[in-house]
Amino acid sequence: MQSTITPWEVKGDIDYDKLLREFGISPLKDLPKVFTDDLLFRRKIVFAHRDIQKILDAKKNSKPFVMMTGLMPTGKFHIGHMLIARQMIFYQQLGAKLYIAVADIEAFLARNQPLEQSYQNAVEDYITNYIALGLKPDNCEIYFQSKRSSDAKKANAYYRLQNILAKHATFNEFKAVYGDISPAKMVASLLQAADMLHPQLAECEGPIPVVVPVGIDQDPHIRLARDISQRIKLPMPPFIQLSSTYNAFMPGLSGGKMSSSDPNSFIALTDTKADVEKKIRKYAFSGGQPTLEEHRRKGGDPDIDVCFQYLKFFFEPDDKKLEKLSKDYKSGKLLTGELKEYTIKKITEFLEEHQKRREKAGSFISKYIR
Ligand code: TRP
After folding, report:
1. Is the pLDDT score of 349 beyond 70?
2. Which of 31, 42, 30 is nearest to 316 (CA)?
3. Which of 191-195, 298-302, 313-317, 364-368 comes out lowest in average pLDDT?
4. Residue 210 has what pLDDT?
5. How would CATH label the architecture of 264-359?
6. DSSP string of 96-164?
7. Helices (H) and strands (E) in the chain, counts
8. Which residue from 10, 50, 72 has its CB within 8 A of the most atoms of ligand 1, so it is best to mutate?
9. CA 164 from centre of chain
10. How confident is the model at residue 235 (pLDDT cuts 50, 70, 90)?
11. Confidence label for 234 from pLDDT (cuts 50, 70 and 90)
């Protein structure tokens, strides 16, 4: 299948190596232990970067840095979104200050979702999940793009920056980065650039290294923000070039990217045990062979098996166990049905605990939104 990958559409098979080459992104390697202790980095789920050295240096020299990212609150919060949430929490534990955008303006401009719906999804689902996953209120600002802050100085600075960025962008550059683009999407890209750059304004932290963890489809936004930011001269102090990291997509149940617009592609963090059983048994794409006899003889392929990928991305933190599952699957000793049941058990155990934490999380939201 022909693949398409833009910030607003991901379709078909994704050739990550080709994307890295086309976009000019570097593979992540030689990370310090504080990074590889986290399975996302160790297992190369976060696999590429721009300018990560600035962040590694800040950490090494105990200098402050910021982690900035955001999510569009369209549809249910699922285990693919959890990838980004886990990185937020990782950087918070590393000592970063966090800026987290609820991209409600983007959801309106690019997905036609009313602001009220975004507000509801963010408060009842997205932010509640961030908190239940371990996000702490200290050193953390969550804001809505449509309502940056009750502190007018900060809010004005953010929207002013979006306009200054517009002044420094060209139409040709938009066409080169995005291909076909509408005025609404241009505005959304510029607002995202303001999201990523505004932590460095005097009204926020002042010039500071900022890392933006994203899925690789977001790189066009990063390229645009990086390019424009380096062209702005006075009246602002120069921006320190943005750093970014890229994670692989969580595969959808039947392959492709997990997407909130297709309920049979995702496992939501609010799914019940029965939902998980049904979804995994019925929809999870298997890397096993069509018959038992053939499977015993030829073995399965963990690299394309969706259950194995879920275990690898999150649900089997023990490397040795994961390795054994992979070996047994390849040799034919472990059957698809067995791998599915194991995955169901791991996911439901996680969700049961998570859903208890969610119950409590809702009442704390006001501590996170400034
Ligand atoms: N465009 C992102 C998405 O589709 C959301 C987003 C808005 C974002 N602002 C951001 C991501 C700043 C990273 C940094 O989900």
Report:
1. yes
2. 42
3. 364-368
4. 98
5. Orthogonal Bundle (1.10)
6. -EEEEEE-HHHHHHHH---HHHHHHHIIIIIHHHHHHHT--STTEEEEETTB--SSHHHHHHHHHHHHH
7. 17, 9
8. 72
9. 27
10. low
11. low
Q: Is the pTM of this model over 0.70?
A: yes
Angle formed by the axes of helices 152-168 and 219-231, nearest 10°: 90
Task: Please state the atom number of ligand 1 nearest to the C-alpha of residue 68.
Answer: 14
Shortest-distance Cα residue to atom 15 of ligand 1: 71
Which residue has the CA at smallest separation from atom 14 of ligand 1? Answer: 69
Domain ranges of the chain: 4-248, 264-359
* pLDDT score, position 260: 85
Task: Give me the pLDDT at residue 353, please.
Answer: 97
Can you tell me which residue has the tokens 């617009």? 261
The encoded tokens of residue 92 equal 């918070």
The pLDDT of residue 21 is: 87
DSSP state of 315: I
Q: State yes or no: pLDDT of 1 exceeds 60.
A: no
Q: Write the class of the CATH domain 4-248.
A: alpha beta
Residue 302 dihedral angles phi and psi, to the nearest 5°: -60, -25
| Residue closest by Cα to atom 13 of ligand 1 | 69
